[in-house]
Specification:
The structure holds two protein chains of two kinds.
Chain A lengths: L3 H32 L4 H10 L3 H10 L6 H12 L1 H7 L2 H5 L3 H8 L3 H9 L8 H27 L11 H17 L4 H17 L5 H14 L1 H8 L7
Chain B lengths: L5 H25 L7 H22 L12 H17 L2 H19 L1
Helix pairs in contact in B: 3-4
Organism (chain A): Acetobacterium fimetarium
Keywords (chain A): Cell membrane, Membrane, Transmembrane, Transmembrane helix, Transport
Membrane topology (chain A): Multi-pass membrane protein
């Protein structure tokens, strides 16, 4: 029999890289949210309910209203659509976890997904309990980071002008990771072109939706070329 | 600036609901061992790089090229994030370094 302590110890060591990443990005999110006029209760509330790095940063700009409901739904689905494919690897495993399976579905972020995919859990540990502990630890780092950032944001003494660039930097970093991880350059180039052209035509207020629709259409048109280039890609099982 | 309580609360719940719906979708659609339609798999593979590219444009949407400083701080900082990241592949270093440079640029240089 394994004890809870052993499972917690194993899960904690596995989640260490996520601990630092989530604390840092969470703090950045909390500070930005505080700067936008929402105190740390909002950071706590959002990190508990939405729990998604990239989407929470996009959400800051949506909170004040002004974006239509359809645009908000389409934007959320587009930013998050990759999550559809994360779940595919865990359908049977999460189903076997009962009520905890629902939390596993909710908490399947990019980082948790990559941990769950990559872990080689020792035979003597209960696999389901390790999965659940990893998921709970990851979200707790994120919630602590976001809330801390929100609290820090209201006490920071120095000039924070320009700190919002952290969000731009985050997306540039993800863009470079995708550039390396994806053989075909077409999707990235389609995104840059559709985004820029749509921004010029529709202006800063309403360019996202046309840019996304344009990208989906172009990608479907170019599908065969892209898939051919991607054939050697391996997908995490 | 903050705009009351109701609007941000509803927007958050909408985004939280959509996010859960997306994470739940594979379990609802393919839980019974059904095959995933090829067009969905294909879109799921191709869409992420395009969406992230659009989000980079989204972050820079308010930068004006015609008025001073002509987007220079943004382009320098994005360049530094890219160089740091291609060099070390360390998220914290790239994001932290780029943001710090940008803050110095907008506060002291431009």
């Amino acid at each position: 029999m394994t004890t809870k302590k052993e499972i917690l110890k194993y899960a904690f060591i596995q989640t260490l890289p996520v601990l630092f990443g989530y604390l840092f990005m969470g703090i950045a999110f909390g500070i930005l949210l505080e700067e936008a006029g929402y105190n740390f209760f909002w950071a706590l509330f959002i990190s508990l309910t939405v729990y998604s790095g990239s989407m929470q940063f996009v959400l800051i700009g949506m909170l004040g209203g002004g974006m239509g409901i359809i645009a908000m739904i389409v934007l959320t689905f587009s930013v998050q659509c990759r999550h559809i494919f994360y779940g595919l690897s865990f359908i049977e495993k999460f189903k076997a976890m009962g009520k905890r399976g629902w939390y596993m579905i909710f908490s399947l972020t990019d980082e948790t997904y990559s941990l769950l995919c990559g872990m080689k859990i020792p035979e003597e540990l209960d696999k389901k309990k390790v999965f659940f502990t990893v998921a709970v630890l990851d979200q707790s780092y994120w919630v602590i980071g976001c809330t801390l950032g929100g609290i820090m944001g209201s006490f920071i003494g120095f000039d924070t002008t320009g700190i919002d660039f952290a969000m731009t930097a985050l997306f540039v970093v993800i863009f470079i990771e995708q550039w390396y991880g994806f053989h075909s350059r077409i999707p990235a180039i389609v995104g840059i072109c559709c985004g820029t052209v749509s921004l010029i035509i529709f202006g800063a207020g309403g360019f996202i939706l046309p840019a996304l629709i344009g990208s989906v259409c172009l990608l479907l048109l170019l599908k065969n070329t892209i898939i051919k280039e991607e054939d050697s890609q391996e997908v995490c099982q | 600036m903050s705009s009351g309580f109701i609007t941000p609360f509803l927007v958050t719940m909408l985004v939280a609901g959509c996010t859960f719906a997306i994470r739940y979708m594979p379990f609802a659609l393919f839980g019974g061992g059904k095959e995933v339609p090829p067009i969905i798999t294909a879109l799921g593979e191709m869409l992420p790089p395009a969406v992230i590219a659009i989000l980079v444009v989204y972050c820079l949407k308010s930068v004006s090229l015609v008025t001073a400083p002509h987007g220079l701080p943004e382009f320098i900082a994005v360049g530094i994030v890219a160089i740091l990241h291609i060099w070390k592949r360390n998220n914290l270093l790239s994001i932290g370094g780029g943001t710090l440079v940008y803050m110095v640029l907008v506060q002291m240089v431009f």
